[in-house]
Design goal:
about 65% strand; globular
Length: about 90
């Protein structure tokens, strides 16, 4: 099973880093799901929640006010000014 290598950073810290099965971000033109083996993508983020579903099914969710996401060859980088805890693990 393919996974995503995710690095989620804010201006002052690494928010989350590791491997995930799926990432959902609040892109400027609507919610965008990112899965392994997708086409390379670069998108601007709006206010909303970034949701990371880990390999083990654990969900991490953070509220963001904007930023960007890039994805290429199963490497996902999410960069925002700040990220607040919205919800934690299920």
């Amino acid at each position: 099973m393919s996974t995503l290598e995710v690095t989620f950073v804010s201006a002052d810290r690494t928010v989350w880093s590791g491997h995930a099965a799926q990432v959902v971000v609040p892109a400027a033109d609507g919610s965008m799901g990112i899965l392994p083996r997708m086409q390379p993508t670069l998108a601007i983020l709006e206010r909303g929640a970034v949701r990371i579903i880990g390999e083990d099914g654990e969900v991490t969710e953070r509220a963001v006010d904007g930023g960007f996401v890039s994805m290429d060859r199963d490497v996902v980088t999410i960069a925002v000014d700040h990220a607040d805890r919205a919800t934690a693990a299920r």
